[in-house]
Amino acid sequence: MILAELTITETAVIGLFVATIQFATLLFLAGLGETISERAGVLNLGVEGMMAIGAVFGFIGGVESGSPWVGLLVGTIAGGAIALLHATAAVALGADQVVSGLALTMLGLGLADFIGDDYTSDPRRALFAEVDIPGLSDIRIVGDVLFSASPVTYMAIVLGVIAWFVLNRTSIGLGLRAVGQSASTADAAGHSVVGMRMGAVVVGGALAGMSGAYLSTFVVGAWSVGVTAGRGWIAVALVIFGAWRPGRVAAGALLFGFTLALQSRLQPFGVNFSPILVSMLPYLLTVGVLVVISIRARNQPSPSPAGLGIPYRREER
Amino acid sequence: MRRLVLTRRESPTRGGQPIAFLFGLAFALIGGAILLTISGDPVFDVYERMWERSFGSLDTISATFNRAVPLALAGLAVSIAATMGLWNIGAEGQILFGATAATFVGRIFPDLPGPILIIAMLLAAALGGALWALGPGLARAEIGVSEIITTLMLNEVAIRLIVYLQTTKWKDPDGFGFPQITARPEQARLGIIWERAHLGVLIALALIAAFGWFMNRSVWGYELKIAGSSPKTATYAGISMRRKVVGVMALSGAVAGFAGGIELGGSAVRLSENISNGFGFAGIIVAALALMRPSGVAVVALAFSALQVGGLSIQTLGVSSAVSTILQALILFGAIGAAVLSTYQIRLVDRKVTT
């Protein structure tokens, strides 16, 4: 009797943490992309739209080719391609980043809806299979949670390490951060502000697209209107929560991923608390973190890139 | 070597923004046509249907007016915040919370006579919107927290608050178990003034006119302009920046919240998370296209409303109504391109030799 109860609890625990890893992967990819873009000084509020584009192209690419890898690739490219619009408007033409980013979200959601119209109830699937890490995946609970994930999760970790390395240990990263801190100084030092920023926005879009494709080739496994469900906004929040640093963004992704996983899994634990109220947590936590950052900024430098949100026009130097 | 560069003109081309908007509209229609052609939809039939169902008859024009109301008020809310250089990205959440506050009043006083109840609900809506924007305003004024992110985050909170009420405390007992909120009192309905257009149209026009007057003729409006364009000058003149920031955010939220009340009394029967339909986000684009000018907001909101109303009608042709969303976003991108052309000129210059 006691044994039976224990088994149920263990299944519930594994289910909760497996879902946490899935949502964390999703949020981390998009959040990492936004981090790169914001470190270069460009706020991109188009994440939700780029994610939707990635999701629809990921699904179509997957089911038409029969391979989730093709889907992931197509979604990634599509995300980068639509981000080019924000890069052109907000960086090359110096339009307001807030307005251009929101218009990108609108365009992305609309385009995804339009393109995906014929695929909404498509029964075909092109899904990633979990990859078991030999030896480690047999460990009780931990093996199921950490060493039996989709290949995209492992890829996201590798991408995170690469992004951290490039940002902090290479001259490209130094230039990128310089451009985000003070565009005019970076320009004077010989960095191409427009080139760097456009590149960062496109890379950020590609990662958001990959995140969306992961959604339609694994987490949800299908395409439907509204499949992104506001998770792009969480990715925007995550960057602030993670103080614009890949490592902390990853930690934040785990925490926010946990709250997303918790929403549909409270009952197995006998917790009688509304899952909808839990779903408010990432947003409220981000507001809280912003307040803390701002209070601390009185005594220590803010982690926010100084040039974030400010368009740069060379002649105004 | 020679290359292309953008240089700023001495002064922007006269009448630049209306032209930029029309250019954006043309850009969007062409872009939409290409998209429809690729997917094998009849372009002219789609556009004709959209026109017919938005401006084709007095009946449809009045419906277009109705939908322009929340768009214009959201645009106005964004413009108000912009006078102080603030971004209110939270109009969506303020509309939703405004409608929630109005619903609350309707639930406590379900038997009040219509006109009194409507006024009480609209006031509650404005107050609710102001409250929803007050937090971000205070955080910005007191400790310098970016209002862009806080207002954005509160949108998602407002949506979930309504979903929560829908499934719990305010769930309709007569909804056959379906998660919906009890309908608002029947008498709390905005009167019809012309065809299908309700009173909200007049109220919105009055608010826009009042704000235009207020900004250009009142002391507070004058102080706002100074504070928005030069915070240092304002501080020297003894204007409290902190109070201005909080006041402007609350006012901006109040206008958006008010729009939520109008939607509840005019177009909707009950509160739901879909009562706003993205008006708050579209309002930002509307305000940006109107360069934050009230008169422009009214015109652009009407155009966006037509696209939205028209967009809903093309579903019967078997075409996704998402076309409308795409067109609205493309207008903005087209207008950005055109605005750059009106303030800049493209020239071919000798490449600078950098040492």
User: Low-confidence spans of chain B: pLDDT under 50, at least 5 residues?
Assistant: none
Give the total of beta strands of chain A.
0
- What sort of overall outline of chain A do the alpha carbons produce when their principal axes are compared? globular
Q: Mind telling me which CATH architecture of chain A this is?
A: Orthogonal Bundle
Q: Order of helices and strands of chain A, N to C?
A: HHHHHHHHHHHHH
Distance between the termini of chain A: 75 Å
- CATH class of chain A, please? Mainly Alpha
Question: How many strands, which pairing sense, and closed or not: the largest β-sheet of chain B?
Answer: 2 strands, antiparallel
Characterise the protein shown here.
The complex is a heterodimer of chains A (317) and B (355). Chain A has a single domain (10-316), classed as ABC transporter involved in vitamin B12 uptake, BtuC, CATH 1.10.3470. Chain A is built from 13 helices and no strands. Chain A has 317 residues and is mainly α. The relative contact order of chain A is 0.21. Chain A is globular, with a radius of gyration of 20 Å. The longest helix of chain A is centred in the N-terminal third of the chain and has 38 residues, at 2-39. The model of chain A has no long low-confidence stretch (mean pLDDT 91). With 355 residues, chain B is mainly α. Chain B has a domain at 64-290. Helix content of chain B is 69%, strand content 5%. Chain B has helices spanning 16-38, 43-55, 58-82, 91-108, 114-143, 147-167, 200-217, 219-229, 231-236, 241-266, 279-289, 294-313, 322-343, and strands at residues 2-8, 192-194, 197-198, 344-350. In chain B, strands 1-4 form a two-stranded antiparallel ribbon. In chain B, strands 2-3 form a two-stranded antiparallel ribbon. In chain B, strand 2 (192-194) and strand 3 form a beta hairpin. In chain B, helix 3 (58-82) packs across helix 12 (294-313), helix 4 crosses helix 5 and helix 4 (91-108) packs across helix 10 (241-266). The two termini of chain B are 15 Å apart. Chains A and B meet through helix 4, helix 10, helix 12 and helix 13 of A and strand 1, helix 5, helix 6, helix 11 and helix 13 of B.
